[in-house]
Specification:
bZIP, transcription cis-regulatory region binding, mainly alpha, transcription, rod-shaped, BZIP domain-containing protein, single chain
Length: 145
């Protein structure tokens, strides 16, 4: 019954109490709408920011993957070149040992005293050069295909 009386009396514009209540309701409704609009805009802005960050991170990730692939390719090429150089060093070491044994036999036969230096194993101590008296000459063409 009380609600019926309110409805009946709220229709009359002559009562200032009800006009004040209607005005507060209207202001609250406008305020709520504005707050909801700001909230939607804020949410939309956050979503756009996250999408932009995703795009940036995906781009950076793709660039890092490309750098990794390039580094792996260079590593494989260098490892292949190193393997070739190791085989060549072993072959040259074997050849030098063979030549030293021939030189030792020649020294025994001829009676001439020849000092034959010991040949270090290049794979065991790669920093020790077999013949440190001879300079090694390198050029940029050595590593190119």
């Amino acid at each position: 019954m009380a609600s019926i009386q309110r409805q009946g009396s709220s229709g009359s514009d002559s009562d200032p109490r009800y006009a004040n209540v209607d005005e507060r309701k209207r202001k609250r409704m406008i305020s709520n709408r504005e707050s909801a609009r700001r909230s939607r805009m804020k949410k939309q802005k956050q979503m756009e920011d996250l999408v932009n960050e995703i795009n940036h991170l995906e781009s950076a990730n793709a660039m890092l993957k490309q750098n990794i692939d390039s580094s792996v390719q260079r590593y494989v090429e260098m490892e292949s070149a190193n393997n070739i150089l190791r085989v060549q060093a072993m072959e040259l070491t074997d050849r030098l040992r063979s030549l030293n044994s021939v030189l030792q036999i020649w020294a025994e036969i001829s009676g001439i005293n020849v000092e034959i230096p010991e040949i270090p194993d290049p794979l065991m101590k790669p920093w020790q050069l077999p013949c440190p008296m001879q300079p090694l000459v390198a050029s940029a063409d050595m590593l190119q295909d």
